[in-house]
Amino acid sequence: MSIRITANARRRMVALTAVAGLALGMAGCGGGGGDDEKPKPSASASGDGGSQPSAQEGQEETPLAELKGTDGLLLQIISAARDSGGFVTVSGNLKNDGAEAVAIPAQTSGDETEVIKHGQSLGGATLVDSKGKKRYYVLRDTDGRPLTTTGLTTLNAGQTLPVFMQFPAPPADTTDVSIQLPTFSSGTIKISG
User: Fold this and answer.
1) pTM: predicted TM-score of the whole model, two decimal places
2) What's the CATH number where 154 sits?
3) How many structural domains is the chain composed of?
4) CB 92 within 8 A of CB 75
5) In the beta sheet, which residues pair with residue 121?
6) CA 98/CA 157 separation, integer angstroms
7) What's the domain range around 16?
8) Reduced to 3 states, what is the DSSP secondary structure of residue 55?
9) Which listed site, 46, 61, 76, 109, has its alpha carbon 20 to 30 Å from 31?
């Protein structure tokens, strides 16, 4: 009889411990209405209490380049940033300026079998350094997946989709490059950083 009582007591302790752990977890994630929940000032807020637009907000108004595609597609390049790891990340918006839904052309993925097998993407994009006479292709991971927006299918009329592409960085003294994407016009962009 004492074995049964001991087993029941152990089960109750385990259940109580689990409930207490869940309660603590929910309290840590949940919203107590304390002072800790006040919004923290952002790094972009000015000293007088007004806010300044972020760099990305300002760039959205004047893109680095606009590449026109088929059927009303438009690729607006917002930024091209060099990072310390030796890469350039190009960010922008793919927009359907047309009046009807448009399928993203399959050619934007490029023609490399390894890239195509991972689905529709912007893997066919290249950066061209005219000064250094080099072409830079979208980077791939160890499985051959392109380091770019993937899973592209259709854009409805007026729809905008944020996109990115990552390339090896040209030499540090190269800032102006041409960006090319199959079925789109090409454009010149300036690399920052």
Assistant:
1) 0.67
2) 2.60.40
3) 2
4) yes
5) 150
6) 6
7) 2-27
8) helix
9) 46
- Classify residue 83: in a domain, yes or no: yes
Note whether 68 and 145 are same-domain residues.
yes
Looking at the domain assignment, is residue 42 inside a domain? no
Strands 102-103 and 126-129: unpaired
d(CA 154, CA 46): 41
Mean pLDDT is highest, among 11-25, 110-124, 152-166, for 152-166
Count of CA atoms in the C-beta half-sphere (13 A) of 152? 29
Same domain assignment for residues 118 and 158: yes
Tokens matching residue 77: 């390049």
CB 52 within 8 Å of CB 42: no
Q: List pLDDT tens digits, range 28-86.
A: 555 444 444 444 443 334 344 444 444 444 444 689 999 999 989 999 999 999 998 89
Alpha-carbon span 80 to 68, nearest angstrom: 18
Q: What's the pLDDT tens digit per position in 179-191? A: 999 999 999 999 9
For range 124-140, the mean pLDDT: 94
Any residues with CB less than 8 A from the CB of 2 and at least 6 apart, and which? none
- Tell me the mean pLDDT in the region 4-32: 52
Contact 120, 151 (CB under 8 A): yes
CA distance 44 to 51: 7
Tokens encoding 145: 């997946």
110 in the same domain as 23:
no
Note whether residue 32 is domain-resident: no
